[in-house]
Amino acid sequence: MARAHAADSLPESMLVYGPQGVGKQRVALWIGQLLLCTAPGPEGPCGECKSCRLAVSLHHPDLHWYFPLPRPKGSKTPEKLAAALEEARMDTLAERREEPFHASVPATEPVGLYLAIARSLRSRAQKKPSMGPRQVFVIAQAESLVPQEASQEAGNALLKLLEEPPEGTTLILTSSAPGQVLTTIRSRTVPLHVPPLSRETVLRLLSDVVGTPKDQAEQAAALARGSIGRALGFLPEGDEPGPLEEVRRKAFTLLRAALSPGTAEGLGAAIGFPPARARGLLGLFAFLQEALRDLAAVAYGAQHAVVNVDTVDFLEKAVRDYDIQPLAAARAVDLVEEASQMAAGNVNPQLIVAGLMMDLRRALIVPATVAGGAAR
Ligand SMILES: [Zn+2]
Q1: Which of 72, 128, 196, 209 lies 20 to 30 A from 79 at CA?
Q2: Domain that holds residue 44
């Protein structure tokens, strides 16, 4: 990127994509700093000029960071809505300044890049930069321009900017679901892939930068799948398990229930869910799919590929007890996918989980072994 910038060949619009929590915003903000730095070198921004210092501390007036926000309540007029969204953006920026590293945890309420956000971004882009000849816009989770109300319009407002960016304006969009980004936006941006980090890199970031104790850092890095944001979600908060660790444990409770001798435990697990807000299941189901992927790996004899390393004993016992075949575990992953689609369609969570528990049981447990392994 630094070389491209030195050769003045950095694209005006980019789409930085890669897994959630892998550091796409960091990369985008770093490119922003590079563009605004007054003395960039071959390795990137100098890190010492006024622009760099302002960019690093998220105070640079020409480095604008936009991200999806919850819809503010009680904002009736478009002006009030725009003002409330801008205030919420400033609050979030203040939080990021305090705590630059944060866990990638699914939002608890629906968020979006609303039309008001796209409009405020566009009107800012029409103004002259404050400090130098350039301004940079970083727009997180570009896919959330789509599924929200008035989305098409919000997309179009941004599209006009991408088509004719004012001189000296660079737009850097990021997405962990680039397939869901409007194709018109995708076709006007140069893609830049941020791959998962190595386990060693995640470990180093946790111990050297975040200051995580060694044993916690190792466990979190093992579960992170190359995502620092994910790793942070596994770190304990005081005496409580981290938010992602909690969901992971819940996913294994479900798998244990599905593999329990009778159907009662599975149905009991279903009753424990609230009767509404099915979308809240999506994060849990993603972890359940990872648990089943690990089960498939163990059934295949590929223990080294297991992500949830602390569950190998349980998975091995399940495979032995029920003669679970790798393909059966792979089919089970599909069943959870179907359940996720129902959850996205807001079916009653208790019904979804009850049905899924029965389906998983049927898919995983070979009937002959339930009858005592007589077939062998
Ligand atoms: Zn600099």
Answers
A1: 128
A2: 2-193
Residue 324 alpha carbon to ligand 1 centre in Å: 58
List, for residues 129-174, the tens digit of each pLDDT value: 999 899 999 999 988 875 445 556 767 778 888 888 899 999 999 9
**How many domains are contained in the chain?**
2
**CA 125 to ligand 1 center in whole angstroms:** 22
CA of 204 to the centre of ligand 1 (A): 25
Separation of CA 329 and ligand 1 centre (Å): 52
Residue 228 lies in a domain: no
CATH code where residue 11 lies: 3.40.50.300
- Mapping DSSP onto H, E and C, the string for the chain reads CHHHHHCCCCCCEEEEECCCCCCHHHHHHHHHHHHHCCCCECCECCCCCHHHHHHHCCCCCCEEEECCEECCCCCCCHHHHHHHHHHHHHHHHHHHHHCCCCCCCCCCCCEECCHHHHHHHHHHHHCCCCCCCCEEEEECCHHHHCCCCCHHHHHHHHHHHHHCCCCCEEEEEEECCHHHCCHHHHCCCEEEECCCCCHHHHHHHHHHHHCCCHHHHHHHHHHCCCCHHHHHHHCCECCECCHHHHHHHHHHHHHHHHCCCCCHHHHHHHHCCCCCCHHHHHHHHHHHHHHHHHHHHHHCCCHHHCCCHHHHHHHHHHHHHHCCCHHHHHHHHHHHHHHHHHHHCCCCHHHHHHHHHHHHHHHHCCHHHHCCCCCC
Distance 196 CA to ligand 1 centre (A): 28
Model confidence pLDDT, tens digit, residues 102-126: 888 776 677 777 777 888 888 899 9
pTM over 0.90: no
| Same domain, yes or no: 180 and 272 | no
How far does residue 12's CA lie from ligand 1's centre (Å)? 20
pLDDT digits (tens, 9 = 90+) for 292-349: 999 999 999 999 999 999 999 999 999 999 999 999 999 999 999 999 999 988 889 9
Structural domain includes residue 12: yes
**46: CA distance to ligand 1 center in Å?**
4
